Amino acid sequence: QAYVSYSNIAALAHLAAKPGWEVTSTLDGVSVKIWTHEEGNVLSFKVEMQVKIPSDLAFSLLSDFTFRQQWDKHFLTCEVLQAVNEDEKIYHVTSPPVTGHKPRDFVILVSQRQPCKPREPYIVAVKSVTLTSKPPSPEYCRSEILCAGFQIYSVSCSSCTVCYFNQVTSGVMPYLAANLTGSSKSIEDTALECIKFLE
């Protein structure tokens, strides 16, 4: 268990530190920037948001995934399956169906960490896990999150930068394909909803 939570945090830090991120769009002047990173058949994206609340408050709001439906329309339901300890929880999430597909579901481990040193970010890391008590169900298409999460950097006592990362697999692709070709703006819309929710 300790290894799984460590690898969850480490995978997010590794993804964030990769060279070669490219800015693909900037919204509202500077409040939202979207970056992508391609490596083989894995596409990652990063959404950087400037938010006018303290970083510790953003951390407490973003690390509790039961709030997620309030701003992310990709989360239909979200329930805590297991509180592993105060920094790790396992959630079951369902997503609305994309045309022609069954609704998807995910079993995810969410690991949160406060910064050890000044200038280090708050971290909320997410990855799929297998839980014998929650096997795949025929009504959903069980999907996997390789690596996702938030890094929250303090800018001042009343503002912070929130970076959301997601390493995209084919399971998440239907939600993003339209977006990355520019025909849909769901990433931007979700980022703006996130900022509105936080502020």
Architecture overview:
- The protein has helices at residues 2-17, 55-63, 173-180, 186-198; strands at 22-27, 32-39, 42-51, 77-85, 88-95, 104-113, 122-128, 141-142, 147-156, 159-168.
- The protein has one domain (1-198): 2-Layer Sandwich (Alpha-D-Glucose-1,6-Bisphosphate, Chain A, domain 4).
- It has 199 residues and is α+β, with helices and mostly antiparallel strands.
- The mean pLDDT is 87.
- It has 4 helices and 10 strands; from the N terminus they run H-E-E-E-H-E-E-E-E-E-E-E-H-H.
- It is globular, with a radius of gyration of 16 Å.
- Residues 18-168 form the START domain.
- This is ACO12 thioesterase.
- One of its GO terms (molecular function) is lipid binding.
Number of domains: 1
How many strands? 10
CATH class: Alpha Beta
Classify the secondary structure makeup into a structural class. alpha+beta
CATH topology: Alpha-D-Glucose-1,6-Bisphosphate, Chain A, domain 4
Spans of at least 5 consecutive residues whose pLDDT stays below 50 are none
CA radius of gyration:
16 Å
Shape: globular
Helix count?
4
| CATH structural architecture | 2-Layer Sandwich
CATH homologous superfamily caption: START domain
* H and E string: HEEEHEEEEEEEHH
Helix content: 10-25%
Q: Biggest β-sheet, characterized?
A: 10 strands, mixed
Report the β-strand fraction as a percent range: 35-45%
Protein name: ACO12 thioesterase
InterPro entries: START-like_dom_sf, START_lipid-bd_dom, START_lipid_transfer
Domain START: 18-168
Pfam family, one: START
